[in-house]
Amino acid sequence: MDHTLVLVKPDGVQRGLVGPVITRLEQRGLRLVAMKLMMISRELASQHYGVHEGKPFYDGLLDYITSGPVVVMVWEAAGAVAVVRKAMGATRPAEAEPGTIRGDYALEVGRNIVHGSDSQETAAFEIGLFFSDGELVEWGRSVDRWVFE
Ligand code: DAT
Ligand code: MG
After folding, report:
1. Total structural domains in the chain?
2. 17: closest CA among 69, 62, 67?
3. 96 belongs to a structural domain
4. Which of 36, 51, 144, 147 has its CB 3.0 to 4.6 Å from that of 29, i.e. a possible disulfide?
5. Over the stretch 90-115, which tens digit does the pLDDT of each residue have?
6. Is residue 87 in some structural domain?
């Protein structure tokens, strides 16, 4: 099944939104396979956000993502990347639909609570940045047959 990387960013952790983010993804039916609280180093941040290097918001983005602890997770489901992107809502929270994480909890692009990988290739790259293979837990839930076809 597909994997995607989700971060609750420093603003989400500070605002006590780790629980709501996890709850939404759990209740949707995705399976959590890895999770930790950590500080992101400048080095790791520059790798994670390498595609944005040179953009006007890049330095501020690195300041923000390294400004406090984040919760980093890997979630599993068929089509996990797209499912999580939709659940997160638009990058600019002002444009995010109500019912999405950003649409319900955020207002500004530089304080948008969550990160989710944007493709399967990006997901594989990002998961490799944050986790070693042994940290992904293969497990089953008794409810899985009621969630996964
Ligand atoms: P997303 O986080 O939805 O994948 P992205 O990968 O395009 O969005 O950008 C990464 C983060 O960078 C985004 O969550 C917020 C910030 N960002 C993106 N575009 C921005 C902009 N035009 N001005 C300020 N911050 C921006
Ligand atoms: Mg992105």
Report:
1. 1
2. 69
3. yes
4. 147
5. 999 999 999 999 999 999 999 999 99
6. yes
